[in-house]
Amino acid sequence: MAKRLITAAIGVPLGILIIFLGSLSPHVMSAATDILSVMAVFEVLSAAKYTRYRSITVLSLLFSALLPLFFCYDDLRTYAIPVAFLFLVMLFACTLMRHKEIKFEELGFIAFISIIIPLAISTLAFFCFQFKEHGTFFVVYTLCVAWIADGGAYFAGTFLGKHKLCPEISPKKTWEGFFGGLVAAVIAAVLLGFGYELWDLLFTGEHHFAVNIPILVGAAVVSTFLGLLGDLIASLLKRQCGVKDFSEILPGHGGVMDRFDSVLFVAPFVYLLCKAIFPITIL
Known about the structure:
two-stranded antiparallel ribbon; 11 helices; mainly alpha
C-alpha cells in the first residue's frame, strides 16, 4: 500500500502537468501517449518473452511509435493504412527469416498488440485534436472514470469482498468490489460534470455550456464494465505468461500496461460515443 501511495503522489502531479500542457498544445498529449504506447507494447512483448526476437521487437516498437502520429495528425492520416500494410509485410519477412523459431500464433499476437495498444492509448490524444477546448475534459473524464472505478473496486473488494467474480483469472476480484467500483465511477462522473461547469463559471464569470449529467453517468456505467473487461484480459495474459506484473516501473502498481489496462477499452468507447453524438456532454 505504501508503495502505491508514494507512486501515486509522484505520478498524479506529473499526470496533471501533462494534461495541463496538453490543454495548451495537443502535441504534448500526442507525445505523452506515444511514449506510453511504446512502453506498454514493450512490457507485453517482454512478459510473453517475445523480446528474444530482436528484429521483430524493434519493428514492433517502431510501428507502435509511428501509428499514433499517423492517426493524430490530419496530414499523415491518409498514410496510416499504407504504413500498417508495410509493417505487416516486414513482420512476415522477419518471420520467414526465422521460421524455425517463430510460430504463426506468435506473429498474430505481436501484430495485434502493436496495433491495438497504441490506438487505444493514443485515443487520449485524439480528444485534444478532435474536440479542441473540450478535449481536456474528455481526457480527464476517461482517466478518472477508469481509474476511480478500479480504485473503488480495490477498496470495496478489500473490505467487503466475499463473492468471487472470476477466481480462475483474477482471484482477488469480487462482485462487491465491482459494484463498489461502479458506484465510485458514477459519483466521479457526476462530480466531474458539475465541476466542469463550475470551472467555466469561476474563470469566465458566466455559463458557456451545460453538461449533460445523465449521459455522463450512463457512459460511466458502460465504462466500468469495459474497464473490468480490460483488467481481466490483462490478468489472463499475465497468468498465461506466468508474470505478476508487466513490469516494475511503477512501484506498487506494476507497469504502464498494468495501470492502463482498464483504459484500453474505456478511451475508445468514450471517443467513439463522442464522435457519434457530439456534443454528448457539452450542450
